[in-house]
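Researcher: Go.
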Amino acid sequence: MESRALKVPRIAGRRFLGQLLVVVGAALMVTLFLLYWRNPGRGLPYHDAFNEGKADEWQAFGGTWELVKGSMRNDSDERGAKLLSGSPYWQN
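Model: Structure:
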């Protein structure tokens, strides 16, 4: 008995290789994007926009905050009042 190997046409093999390269390339691009996006060092050193009168990225936890001459001021006596900004991926 003679055994015959199944022959795949060259075009189908090249098409599969091309599709595989596209999938691997896309996965690599997504991985690199996520590594960049979640990098804790992205956006550092941080500079506020208080001089331009902007405080949109800041979140107040208590207190009475206002911009005065390019600085942020808390006019309340509330203990523990905080004004926070930054990346959710920052650690420590």
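Model: The first strand starts at residue 59 and ends at 61.
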